[in-house]
Amino acid sequence: MSTKEKVLEALEREKGNFISGEALAGICNVSRNAIWKSITELKKKGYAISSVTNRGYCLAVDNDVISPEGINRYMKSAAKVIVLEEVDSTNSEAKRKLLFDPEDAHHGTIIVAKSQSAGKGHKGKFLSPKGGIYFSIVLDASDIAAQGKKVTLKVREIVKDVLEKTFDHSFLQKEDSTFFLKDEKICGILTEAIVDLETEHYSYYIVGIGIHTDALKQSSKTFVEKNRVIATLAEQVITGV
User: How deeply is 22 buried, as exposed, middle or buried, from its count of CB atoms within 10 A (0-12, 13-18, 19+)?
Assistant: First the structure.
């Protein structure tokens, strides 16, 4: 883990509270100057960090930048989280990692993109501009109870329940695993499987979830952090399917 990642992890852990530069230097085992450089880099990436003399640094409560550190802050147990600025599709990226870089993907791995150039949906492309939530969860078929179509059905239940509780709205669920708020498409789910052609057994499932957050933010009475939404959905899918 780099110094910048360690600094962000500490700031996420104490979000809304100040941490002195001296304390951060001790946590990261580096100089105060190295802490300052890391804070400067994080600010350039859009993190809302306050710097106050004799108080230190504070990550704003309403900071809404997606990061592995921010997601893991809300996970009961640390997960392998990969955050990309842009990718064709998080489901496609998950498949590539499973097939060509299996050491970088396993049961419970979460792959997030801040935008997708070719997001997948049941009826073609899932529009994925910056500002939304787009991620995939890798599930080892041998580590979950549900199989086949039951995986999709279980994921639908979990996603609907989490979204309705989080945003305090009722959503219309359609058969193609999409959710609507009034007439606006809010969320889509695409579950894909990797199958062993010799045994015809499922080896992995990849659960892709895309959420258009703009309409939800406008209709929600309270601030809802993207990192928290991703963590809550991912953890419940990993443990509940």
Answer: exposed
